[in-house]
Design goal:
Helix 7 runs antiparallel to helix 8. The chain has a 22-stranded antiparallel beta sheet that branches. The two termini are 46 Å apart. The protein is α+β, with helices and mostly antiparallel strands. Helix content is 24%, strand content 48%. It is globular, with a radius of gyration of 26 Å.
């Protein structure tokens, strides 16, 4: 059930993000010409336009996700990260569009979007109650996004209509709440160059007691170059909560997620950071408190040409994929775990916080690796990977981990180095051989 609501929300948010946020620099009296031009472009790229009705200052039509393969390529070219598989899942979706010209002094085009029909695959998989839920969403326009585009056709802003509704499922009624969902952005020619979004409250709760909630999300995105691979994105969430009927719960506070993409010599380099100020996790038999979790990872030397070649290939073109994969790896892909750390933790109801752990690692793949050889002998891949890692546990955390079954055997096989109340492991993997603190482990 949760996947259903998440999918529906993603469809509407995605539609609001791409639809009519592309256009050209033309004067206001050519708005209908711009709309006609954009609809033609959509039709050339996998969408169908149906049920179109035009008046002097208003229009209505339906956008039909008809050709997933064309749609995925089109959206990817406009900074929308969607795979062929994700586009395939949307096949048959229809989005209703109510469009008004010059609705206000600042708005050239105002658009309202809402689901008019769900993908047949989703409807077929739903039971009778699920089908009633889908029918209610369409009949009441529960998921409705409003978008305004300025008269210079350079910026847009909008919102998702507030939601507070209960789906009367016989076994366990589900209530959906969404408040303060707004977004805005800028675009240049046919590319979104920046965007912001906020959500004050989102909650999905069942009468039986299970609940998923999020409070105060704020995010932004900026395209910093000529390609979709040059960007900066940041999301911050005040709190996330989860609970189920089995006595498990989690509360996360101060969530920060950031990603950066850069391009040099047609190679993509991307960095992802995740920070969490506090977390409380409870299970029927135990509970934990965490503070100061941080992680940062960088993936470098990814061939953009190879990625774009893969996107164009037929899914049955095995030889084409092998060649593209060799090209992808030909520059020596490097994965760096710059930081993985937990400052403090506490077990159970103890008010005492103990030190946690920190780690870093680097993994490289030999640029001369032969994918055909790996296909014949998968073990050959191990010889093409070099990796090093450094891990430090506090004494108290290490003692706690030793009580866990999955960690007990490892602690017996590998003896840590000890320094300043810390247990230290240095790992090295080279040419298929693993060493832990200088001693061979394989």
């Amino acid at each position: 059930m949760k996947k259903l609501f998440i999918l529906i929300a993603a469809l509407i948010i995605g539609a609001a993000g791409y639809y009519f946020t592309i256009g050209s620099q033309q004067v206001a009296d050519e708005l209908k010409g711009i709309v006609n031009n954009q609809l033609q472009i959509l039709q050339q790229n996998g969408f169908a336009v149906e049920d179109r009705k035009s008046e002097a200052k208003q229009e209505h039509f339906t956008i039909h996700y008809a050709d997933p393969d064309k749609i995925s390529r089109y959206l990817q070219s406009h900074n929308m990260n969607i795979s062929k598989e994700e586009a395939e899942a949307l096949k048959g979706l229809k989005v209703g569009v109510d469009l008004t010209y010059l609705q206000s002094a600042s708005s050239a085009i105002s658009v309202e979007l809402y689901p008019a029909a769900f993908p047949p695959s989703l409807v077929q998989d739903a039971d009778q109650e699920g089908k009633k839920i889908l029918e209610k969403i369409i009949a009441q326009k529960i998921f409705l996004a409003h978008v305004d585009i300025n008269k210079l056709l350079t910026t847009f802003d909008g919102y998702l209509k507030d939601i507070d509704t209960t789906f009367e499922v016989t076994a366990d009624p589900v209530t959906l709440v969404s408040k303060g969902f707004t977004f805005s952005g800028t675009y240049d020619a046919d590319t979104v160059t920046s965007s912001t979004n906020t959500i004050k409250e989102f909650a999905l709760s069942a009468k039986s007691g299970g609940k998923l909630s999020m409070i105060n999300l704020a995010g932004n995105y900026k395209n910093d170059g000529a390609t979709p691979y040059e960007f900066k994105s940041k999301q911050e969430i005040e709190s996330i909560g989860f609970s189920d009927t089995n006595g498990s719960s989690a509360s996360l506070k101060g969530v920060h997620f950031e990603s950066v993409g850069e391009v040099e010599n047609n190679l993509s380099h991307s960095t992802v950071q995740l920070e969490l100020a506090k977390a409380e996790i409870a299970e029927p038999q135990r509970a934990f408190r965490l503070e100061g979790f941080k992680s940062k990872a960088t993936l470098s030397n990814i061939s953009i040409a190879a990625i774009e070649t893969m996107d164009r290939l037929d899914e049955n073109d095995t030889e084409g994929y092998k060649k593209a994969l060799n090209a992808l790896l030909s520059h020596g892909i490097t994965l760096r775990l710059d930081e993985l750390a937990l400052q403090k933790y506490a077990e159970g109801d103890s008010g005492t916080l103990s030190d946690g752990f920190n780690a870093n690692a680097i993994v490289t793949i030999d640029k001369n690796i032969d994918i055909a050889q790996v296909g014949e002998n998968p073990a050959a891949l191990l010889g093409s990977i070099d990796a090093t890692a450094h891990i430090e546990f506090s004494d108290t955390l290490y003692q706690l981990l030793q009580k866990q079954p999955y960690f007990t055997l490892a602690s017996l096989l590998f003896t840590p180095n000890t320094k300043e109340n810390k247990k230290i492991f240095d790992l090295e993997f080279k040419q298929g051989n693993l060493k832990v603190n200088g001693k061979s482990a394989l």
